[in-house]
Amino acid sequence: MSSDGYADTRSQFRPGDHPTDHFLLTTVVGSYPKPKWLNRAKELAEDEERAFDEENLNEALDDAARLITDEHVRAGIDAVVDGEMRRNEMVEYFADRIEGYEFNGPVKVWGHNYFDKPSVADEVGYDEPWLVDEFEFTTGVTDRPVKVPITGPYTLASWSFNEHYDSEAELAYELADLVNTEIDALVESGARYIQIDEPALATTPDDHAIVGECLEHIAEGIPEDVRLGLHVCYGDYSRIYPEILDMPVHEYDLELANDGYEQLEVFTEPEFDKDLALGVVDVHTAEVETVEEIKANIERGFEVVPPERLTVSPDCGLKLLPRDAAYRKMENMVQAAREVESGLDAGEITVGYAGE
To answer: Which residue ranges does the record assign to the Cobalamin-independent methionine synthase MetE C-terminal/archaeal domain (predicted)?
Structure first.
């Protein structure tokens, strides 16, 4: 992959009527607060005494996906998602669709929180597409480009009980081949922006070589115009940089706002030669950053990459926030990005990134 290749994957998401010469791609990581009525609909569907069947639930899921996609559009996001309205949890959702997985009940993870941690009891396999219906529905309700987040194979392996394979790495590589198959199906349906989510890498950074090998499997045969990103949650990034630069992705989505960009300097030496999706709003607080605060955060990104390689995004998924706060964070984020673009056009913003 060349630097020109990165530019080519980005330009397709620029709106035809974009008002400025500069373009900062705005997007979100994936998850978004679910409407309260959707949670109630799921409860009704699980209640055998209620006449609320799967058809009713699917209608509710469609309505929620349509509503939240529209919220992203109204906020001005360039590459939208449906807020992952159909997904219950980032590992469980996929494990339920992969052959070889089984569920044996929830396990306690912290406090009073439980996670239905799956077990790999047999060889994993791909039966039918996981996300194609979701993607096709979302593209059917918006004219905006749609990004598809997929939980990565390393996280799927690391956050499961492995009862079949000799090692977690072997399981991860097998899962990576399945993710590659899923991306093929998504690309066939028109997807051009795929994000691999690997939050487990933040807690086990010494396994970056395994993640890199997984991404080699995932990227095999993917067309050059498909933008492939990697989201890594907050952690000690110095333990994975610069090694991650060798991974076959166009864009790294990093959670840097919540510690005030204390780790930003990590990515200045050696030069960060990929696109940076910079977290510019903190998803761990309901306090909504002002446009001016977000503009300052965006400009921090120019210390690492030039404007043509900066994507503007929240730190992580927004699902734990109040819905109103999540929306206003997106809205302010987009306004800040547009104002920074205007400032760049006018020569009012100095760009001094490490590669200059």
So the answer is: 25-338
Listed residue (159, 157, 182) closest to 171, CA to CA = 157
> What's the rounded Cα separation, in Å, for the pair 335 and 291?
7
Residue 214 marked in a binding site: no
Regions in the chain scoring below 50 on pLDDT: 1-7
The full length of the chain comes to 356
CB–CB of 186/149 below 8 Å?
A: no
Which two tokens mark 211?
A: 């993640």
For the stretch 56-65, pLDDT in tens is 999 999 999 9
List the one residue out of 308, 316, 317, 321 whose CA is nearest residue 351: 308
CA atoms within 13 A on the CB side of 95: 28
Alpha-carbon distance of 325 to 282, in angstroms, equals 11
Token output for 158 = 């690391």
Other CB atoms within 10 Å distance of the CB of residue 77: 26
Sign of CA dihedral 297, 302, 307, 308: negative
Give the whole-angstrom CA distance, residue 188 versus residue 204.
34
C-beta separation of 286 from 325 below 8 A: yes
Residue in 231, 257, 264 with CA at minimum distance from that of residue 84 = 231
Tell whether 269 is in a known binding site. Answer: no
Asked if residue 124 lies in contact with residue 171, where contact means CB atoms within 8 angstroms, the answer is yes
- Flag whether 233 is marked binding: yes
Q: Which helix (H) or strand (E) covers residue 94, if one does?
A: helix 92-95
DSSP 11-37: HTTS-TT--SSS--EEB--S--PPPHH
List, in order of start, the domains of the chain with CATH numbers.
3-345 (3.20.20.210)
Please check if 231 is assigned to a binding site. yes
Beta bridge partners of 150: 196
- Three-state secondary-structure class, residue 57: helix
pLDDT of residue 354: 60
Write phi, then psi, for 30 (nearest 5 degrees).
Answer: 165, -75
Q: Would you state the pLDDT for residue 109?
A: 65
Close Cβ partners of 90 (under 8 Å, ≥ 6 residues apart): 31, 151, 155, 197, 199
Q: Under 8 Å CB-to-CB from 296, ≥6 apart: which residues?
A: none
Model pLDDT, residue 2: 44
